[in-house]
Every structure is written in C-alpha cells, then in structure tokens.
Amino acid sequence: MTKHFLIKQLINIENAKRINRERVAYLVLENTELVPHLIEIMFTEDPKVSIKAAWVLEIVCEKKLNLIAPQLDYFADNIGFLTHDSAVRPASKICNFIAIAFTSKTDILFKNFLTKNHVDKFIETCFDWMLSDHKVATKAYSMNALFLLGKNYDWVHQELKLILQQNIVKESAAYKARGKITLDLINKQ
C-alpha cells in the first residue's frame, strides 16, 4: 500500500459519518505501514485531504494508540501548525489520548516514548488552542490533556486555572461544565 493509495481512500470519504471514517481507519490498522503517510498527509496544506486524515488518525489512535509512538517527533513538531477546526478537534483528542496514556499507571510505552520536548510541545499547543477561537470540543480535550500533563509541571495547573477562571463566565454552557470539572480536579491536587 502506498501513500498515493491512501490519499485516494481519504478523498473518497464522502462525509464525516463515523462509518466512512472507520472504513479508512480499519484499512490503516490492517496496513500499519500507512501510519507515517497518514500523519504526513494530516499536516499537508490541502484541507480536503488533511482534515480527513486527521479524522482517520483519531480513530486509529483510539483503537491502537501505540501506532503513533514512532511518529511522535513529527506529530509534535507539526501539531501547532494545524489551523482548520475540523483538523484541530481530532488532533486535540489525540493529545488527550496521549496524555491519558502518559499518566496511566499501566501504559509503559508512552512513558518511554514521550520526551520532555514532546510534552512541552503538546502543552504549548493545547494552551494555544485554549486561548484561540476554537470550538468547545477542542478546548475540552485540551483542558483535560493539560490537566493530566500538568501533574508533572506545577505551572501548567496554575496557568490552566487562571485561563479557566478568566474565560468561564463568557464561554458556552458546555465549556462552563467542563471547566468547572477541571477546576475541581486542579483544586483537589
């Protein structure tokens, strides 16, 4: 399977329905040599294909997160350049998956693969997403990833708390609900 073949499959995704995204995700899961191509495509400038690659990568990571581990350098170096909301939301969810795995007591793989540089880039990007004009889902995944990654960096919780306290009054009901949960978690630390 080639990168060109994968691009064709991504172009053929008609809409964002999960069944359409899963079709290509399962193809990638069965042909794991496509994972580096999928990540590379996600960061291309063509939004028609890059967004679909982000959708598919989200499902791939949901099913088998360890497949992204060898690509963490490239992923971390490029994640901050995503601008389209339809690509940023799945990327924020992937950051959340990585943060969950990294702070897990049982998942050793990400404790070994994730470097301080990766964590720093994820923290920086998640803060950027929290402060930018993104939808609630992106901000919710970002605040959870920041809470988890912040367990190892005191300043992250302090900054996150400040941002939440400043923005919670002017954001949507969904943001307020998730923000209150995150604030409670920070305060229990």
Task: Describe the protein.
The protein has 189 residues and is mainly alpha-helical. It folds into two domains: 1-63, Leucine-rich Repeat Variant, CATH 1.25.10; 69-188, no CATH class. The chain contains eleven helices and no strands. Helix 2 packs across helix 4 (47-63) and helix 9 runs parallel beside helix 11 (173-188). The longest helix has 19 residues, at 85-103. The protein is globular.
Question: What does this entry show, briefly?
Answer:
It contains eleven helices and no strands. It is an all-alpha fold and 189 residues long. The relative contact order is 0.09.
Keywords:
Leucine-rich Repeat Variant, mainly alpha, 11 helices, 0% strand, 74% helix, globular
Largest sheet report: none
Mean pLDDT: 94
Q: Could you tell me how far the N terminus lies from the C terminus, measured between alpha carbons in angstroms?
A: 48 Å
Please indicate the percent range of residues in DSSP E strands (runs of 2 or more). under 5%
Helical proportion, percent range: over 70%
What overall form do the CA principal axes indicate?
A: globular
Number of domains: 2
Weakly predicted, low-confidence segments: none
Number of helices: 11
Strand tally is: 0
Radius of gyration over all CA atoms, rounded: 17 Å
- H-E string: HHHHHHHHHHH
Class derived from helix and strand content: mainly alpha
Keywords: Lyase
InterPro entries: ARM-type_fold
Protein name: Adenylosuccinate lyase
GO molecular function: lyase activity
